[in-house]
């Protein structure tokens, strides 16, 4: 699982929630959009695929430094080798414009970060159960 | 009355005098018939009678236009006689319409002899006895003029001359018969009688001449000329007045039809020829109005009227009739119709050049030798621009266009400069034309009268000028014509100015609207990016505060005492509240910005969905919600309507007194073309003075502890309804529950399911 999130508090809370939810899938965290692209493309600092393996699920925030979540998603869906990767947007925006744009670009799911931790916890639980356990993952090259 | 008439008619001396003439029951005589025909022609009357009245009847010595069988009988009983009244009174009888005449309205002659209008003059003998009446009649009502009466009187005099002549002849003949044996005496008496006859002839001739003189004077007074065209010899005779009407002296006319044709305006000639040919073949009245060009080349309108006369073989022998001066009337007609056309063109928004040209042409049509020029003063107030001058040489127009006005700039430049009329009767000598004389004279222009065209506030809009090819001084009629045309041009120009100003203003306004729209779009975009930032960035730290406070509460519960746990709980609650506030604000701001498209929405389904969304809250407060069956369909934006209805129900179940179970009634009501949805609760109610305030953003009536909330819910209802073209309100009193309502247009399409 790869989490792209620039807010350290959100990272902390999400990690805590996943931990509390009992998820055992390892989570890599990157803080900006460009880093996400580099990682997924296996370039620059992330050239070693063994050290930086492709994730089975991408958790993507929308408002990110350097490259927005939308841009990352658009780039991703244009990559023949990566375009099947399931992407769940995890963001604070409830704007219809953002939601619709995300789906247009090929998001698999769109979740709004709840404020109450209890709700966050129940969301991460569902997310982990659905995407990492129930869902059949595609093949990536 | 009729007995009086009868006794007067039966007067013995009168009857004796009548009988002595030996005219009763004599055959028709050409002399009388000719006078009758002449009278009929001159008076344009269908029937003319020489009526001799005895004690039983009226005998017609001549009867022109009498219906059968009366025409063959040549007499009519006194019951049918109008003439007996002329005889009885010895006065002319003038009847415009016998059907309403007090004496005559019952007279059967109206029906039997077709006599409606009647004009009869007594036939009075030299001994003073009236023997009958010379009368003209018409089968339609007619107002007899003094001229008609005088003419009939003249004819009556001529008829009396003929009667006297007849009497003389009769006497002569009886004497010849009586004294046939006494030749000598007879011879002498015959000579005497002959002399008497000659004298009678002379008298009659003198009377006829006198009559003719009267006729001539009458025709002159009526500005009427007589013509008689002998088709056999192709000679035309004009009366004196006829020559005057053609601008000629009596005697100047050479009697040729061709000379007449040359005087007719070329544009009218073929029409005249056609009408004349038609009158000739169809034997009907020739009646046309046409223009005559006088030898001095001025234009004059006349009306011609006449008839052809034929021999027994149907060959036209002559044409005679009258011409009348209709110049004044015709000019007014042309002027008015021209003005009407110009005003119509102005109203219809025709091009200014076309309107001004129509004004110029209209004036030129009224005087053949006038050349009009309309110049427009430029917006700079200095230069004159070409407006319209359809008949002036183009080269001259080009010379004049663009000239700057001044105290000595021809007629127009000076008139515009002075804002006063400038009348130059001779360009070749007038000092105002010093600088412009050469071009004017080279184009043959000799006189120029110019009037400033003014706006309603006396500003000079341009000039209206009349040019002539010879020196000319205007008369009062000219001034009137120029003033009217100038006024008309002023209206047209002022109107165009107003149109231009309006156009300019519209353009400016459109520009401003476009600017404002762009500004608004920019503001809107800024607002959108602001909301975006708020929704992202403002909520992130909140999540951190809330999440970390909770982590503290969960992971470090043991390390915190009661106060510490209370503080962390307060942190969590405050953060939750702020997040709710932000979300509501975003919803409200989205509502003000988003474009809402209305469609048919089932109100019942919306209420159902709102209840589902609020299911948890409804259960929590144990509320009862009753919805009236079959709510109608409305026209609304579905998502916004759902939000509004959800807020209404949430509001209704929230504001109840502690310990009270909320009861909510939802029903609809027809209001004209709209539907009102009522949401009635048993809550704490709202005082009237607060009922408008509560719909504003952040307005709260109660503390957070008692009734939690952001103070935006009702504002969202009001704004959402406004955006959908609906309304929202409340009826309530403190402690008596509230009845909130929203109103929307009803859907009439029936296309939804």
Outline the structure in words.
The complex is a heterodimer of chains A (141) and B (753). Helix content of chain A is 42%, strand content 13%. Chain A is of the alpha/beta class and 141 residues long. Chain A has a five-stranded parallel β-sheet. In chain A, β4, α4 and β5 (109-112) form a beta-alpha-beta unit. In chain A, α1 (8-21) packs across α5 and α2 (33-41) runs parallel beside α3 (69-77). Chain A is globular. Chain B has 753 residues and is α+β, with helices and mostly antiparallel strands. In chain B, the strands form five sheets. In chain B, strands 3-2-1-6-5-4 form a six-stranded antiparallel β-sheet, sandwiched between helices. Chain B has a five-stranded antiparallel β-sheet with strand order 8-7-11-10-9, with helices on both faces. In chain B, strands 13-12-16-15-14 form a five-stranded antiparallel β-sheet. In chain B, α3 (30-43) packs antiparallel against α7 (146-178), α18 (562-593) packs parallel to α22 (713-723) and α21 packs antiparallel against α22. The relative contact order of chain B is 0.04. The model of chain B has no long low-confidence stretch (mean pLDDT 87). Chains A and B meet through α1 and α5 of A and α17 and α18 of B.
């Amino acid at each position: 699982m790869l989490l792209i999130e620039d807010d350290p508090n959100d990272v902390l809370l999400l990690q805590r929630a996943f931990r509390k939810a009992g998820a055992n899938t390892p989570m890599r965290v990157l803080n900006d959009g460009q880093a996400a692209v580099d990682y997924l493309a296996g370039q620059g600092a992330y050239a070693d695929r063994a050290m930086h393996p492709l994730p089975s699920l991408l958790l993507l925030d929308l408002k990110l430094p350097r490259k927005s979540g939308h841009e990352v998603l658009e780039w991703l869906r244009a990559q023949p080798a990566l375009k099947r990767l399931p992407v769940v947007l995890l963001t604070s925006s409830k704007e219809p414009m953002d939601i619709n744009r995300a789906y247009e670009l090929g998001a698999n799911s769109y979740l709004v970060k709840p404020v109450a931790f209890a709700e966050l916890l129940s969301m991460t639980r569902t997310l982990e159960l659905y995407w990492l356990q129930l869902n059949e993952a595609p093949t990536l090259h | 009355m009729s007995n009086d008439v009868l006794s007067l008619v039966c007067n013995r001396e009168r009857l004796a005098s009548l009988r002595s003439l030996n005219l009763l029951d004599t055959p028709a005589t050409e002399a009388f018939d000719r006078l009758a025909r002449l009278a009929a022609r001159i008076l344009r009357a269908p029937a003319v009678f020489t009526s001799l009245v005895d004690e039983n009847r009226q005998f017609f010595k001549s009867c022109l236009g009498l219906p059968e069988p009366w025409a063959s009988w040549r007499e009519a009983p006194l019951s049918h006689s109008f003439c007996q009244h002329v005889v009885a009174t010895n006065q002319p009888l003038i009847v415009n319409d016998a059907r309403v005449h007090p004496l005559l309205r019952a007279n059967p002659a109206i029906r039997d002899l077709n006599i409606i209008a009647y004009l009869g003059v007594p036939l009075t003998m030299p001994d003073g006895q009236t023997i009958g009446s010379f009368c003209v009649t018409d089968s339609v009502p007619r107002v007899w003029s003094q001229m008609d009466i005088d003419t009939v009187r003249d004819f009556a005099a001529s008829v009396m001359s003929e009667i006297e002549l007849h009497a003389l002849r009769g006497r002569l003949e009886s004497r010849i018969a009586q004294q046939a044996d006494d030749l000598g005496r007879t011879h002498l008496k015959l000579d005497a009688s002959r002399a008497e006859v000659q004298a009678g002839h002379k008298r009659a001739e003198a009377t006829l001449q006198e009559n003719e003189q009267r006729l001539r004077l009458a025709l002159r007074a009526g500005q009427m000329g007589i013509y008689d065209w002998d088709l056999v010899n192709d000679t035309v005779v004009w009366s004196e007045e006829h020559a005057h009407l053609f601008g000629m002296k009596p005697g100047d006319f050479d009697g040729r039809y061709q000379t007449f044709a040359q005087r007719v305006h070329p544009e009218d000639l073929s029409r005249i020829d056609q009408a004349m040919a038609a009158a000739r073949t169809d034997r009907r009245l020739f009646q046309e109005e046409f223009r005559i060009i006088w030898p001095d080349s001025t234009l004059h309108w006349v009306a011609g009227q006449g008839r052809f006369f034929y021999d027994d073989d149907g060959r036209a022998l002559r044409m005679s009739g009258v011409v009348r001066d209709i110049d004044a009337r015709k000019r007014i007609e042309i002027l008015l119709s021209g003005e009407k056309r110009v005003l119509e063109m102005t109203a219809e928004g025709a091009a200014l050049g076309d309107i001004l040209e129509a004004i110029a042409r209209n004036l030129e049509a009224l005087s053949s030798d006038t050349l009009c020029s309309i110049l427009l003063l430029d917006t700079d107030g200095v230069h004159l621009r070409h407006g319209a001058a359809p008949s002036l040489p183009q080269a001259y127009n080009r010379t004049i266009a663009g000239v700057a006005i001044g105290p000595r700039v021809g007629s127009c430049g000076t008139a515009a400069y002075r804002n006063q009329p400038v009348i130059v009767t001779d360009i070749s000598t007038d000092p105002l034309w010093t600088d412009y004389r050469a071009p004017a004279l080279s184009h043959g222009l000799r006189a120029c009268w110019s009037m400033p065209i003014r706006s309603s506030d006396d500003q000079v809009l341009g000039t209206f000028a009349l040019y002539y090819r010879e020196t000319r001084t205007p008369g009062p009629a000219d001034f009137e014509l120029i003033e009217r045309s100038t006024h008309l041009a002023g209206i047209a120009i002022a109107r165009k100015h107003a149109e231009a100003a309006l156009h300019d203003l519209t353009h400016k306004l459109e520009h401003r609207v476009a600017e404002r729209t762009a500004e608004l779009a920019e503001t809107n975009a800024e607002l959108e990016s602001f909301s975006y930032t708020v929704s992202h960035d403002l909520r992130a730290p909140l999540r951190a505060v809330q999440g970390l406070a909770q982590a503290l509460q969960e992971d470090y519960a043991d390390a915190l005492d009661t106060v510490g746990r209370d503080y962390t709980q307060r942190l969590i609650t405050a953060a939750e509240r702020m997040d709710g506030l932000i979300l509501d604000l975003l919803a409200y701001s989205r509502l003000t910005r988003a474009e809402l498209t209305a469609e048919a929405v089932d109100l019942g389904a919306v209420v159902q969905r709102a209840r589902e969304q609020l299911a948890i809250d409804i259960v929590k407060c144990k509320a009862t919600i009753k919805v009236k069956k079959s709510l109608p369909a409305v026209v609304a934006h579905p998502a916004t309507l759902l939000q509004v209805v959800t807020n209404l129900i949430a509001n209704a179940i929230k504001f109840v007194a502690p310990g009270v179970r909320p009861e909510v009634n939802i029903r609809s009501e027809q209001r004209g073309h709209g539907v009102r949805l009522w949401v009635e609760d048993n809550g704490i109610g709202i005082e009237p003075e607060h009922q408008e305030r509560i719909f504003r953003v952040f307005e709260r009536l109660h503390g957070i502890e008692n009734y939690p909330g952001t103070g935006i819910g009702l504002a969202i209802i009001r704004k959402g309804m406004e955006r959908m073209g609906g309304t929202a309100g409340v009826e309530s009193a403190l402690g008596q529950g509230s009845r909130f309502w929203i109103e929307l247009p009803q859907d009439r399409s029936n296309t939804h399911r």
